[in-house]
Structures are given as structure tokens and as C-alpha cells.
Design a protein that fits this description.
The chain has about 160 residues and is mainly alpha-helical. Helices cover about 65% and strands about 10% of the residues. The longest helix is centred in the middle third of the chain and has 36 residues. It starts with a helix and ends with a helix.
Length: about 160
């Protein structure tokens, strides 16, 4: 967290020096200050270094989420527009690998944001997430797919 604060403070100094207080100047300054801090990374303690790895993981995470949403949207649109109903709705008890409240909440929200799926509840022992899906032909395949894409991405960003 300390590295992020340094990045913001340096960016504010950048804006003061350049005497330009626009969003584009902020973004340029933020990127430049990030690169400067990246070069100074060995000077930071281990928890602050996480900021630099997270900066590379978050865009990949966003791209993956966008990709999952687009694919799911196309599948739902195809099902809705096809002349015969090709959905097989069902409930899944999804075993969780994620442990913290943040990880569980993030995964549940990502599942809900993906068209055709809805997170319903978390078990009291926080080991199972109950999900409703439009396309549950093979529950094990859905579980494996979710684990390989969404849950893996959540773990990568949060740990």
C-alpha cells in the first residue's frame, strides 16, 4: 500500500510541476511515477512490492472478465434468439477454494455479473457457493470451467 501512496504523491508533485491539472496529465504522471517506482522496487519492503505485481495482474483480470462476459452474453443471446429453447437450467453446489470474505464476495459477484449465472448463497461453513445457471448440462463441467477461469483469476489477484 505504501508504494501506491508514493505513486499518488509523486503524481501530485508531477501535476504541480507541470502546472496542468487535467485527467490526461494525471494519467501520464501516474504512469511515469509508476515506472520510476518500479526501478526503485528493491528499496521497498515485501508487502509494498505486491503493488507492482498487482499492477500487471489487474489488467489481465479485467480482460478475462470482459472475455467471460462477452462469451456468456453471446451464449445467452443465441439461446434467446433460437427458435427452440436450448437451455437446461439447474443449481450447482460449487466447492470453494477461496477462503477470505473478499475472495468469496469477489467470486460470487463475478459469477453473478456473467450472463446466465447467478450466485444464490454461501454455506454457513463458507466452503460451498450455491449458483443457478442457465446451461447446466454437465454440473461437473460447469464447476471445472468456473474453477479454471474465474476462481483462478480471483486467487491470482488477491494472493
Amino acid at each position: 500500500m505504501r508504494a501506491f501512496v508514493y505513486n499518488v504523491v509523486l503524481t501530485v508533485f508531477w501535476m504541480l510541476v507541470t502546472e496542468s491539472f487535467t485527467l490526461s496529465n494525471f494519467l501520464v504522471g501516474f504512469a511515469l511515477c509508476f515506472l520510476i517506482l518500479l526501478l526503485a522496487r528493491p528499496l521497498f519492503d515485501a508487502p509494498s512490492r505486491r503493488y507492482f505485481t498487482l499492477a500487471w495482474k489487474l489488467p489481465r483480470f479485467g480482460a478475462l472478465m470482459l472475455w467471460e462476459i462477452v462469451l456468456s452474453s453471446l451464449r445467452v443471446a443465441q439461446a434467446v434468439l433460437s427458435p427452440r429453447l436450448s437451455i437446461k437450467p439447474g443449481f450447482i453446489a460449487y466447492p470453494l477454494t477461496v477462503k477470505s470474505d473478499l475472495e468469496i464476495t469477489l467470486l460470487a459477484n463475478l459469477i453473478t455479473l456473467t450472463p446466465g449465472t447467478l450466485s444464490l448463497d454461501v454455506s454457513t461453513d463458507r466452503k460451498v457457493l450455491y449458483v443457478h445457471g442457465m446451461f447446466v448440462d454437465d454440473p461437473q463441467a460447469v464447476i471445472q470451467s468456473t474453477h479454471d477461469s474465474l476462481e483462478k483469476a480471483v486467487l491470482e489477484v488477491t494472493r
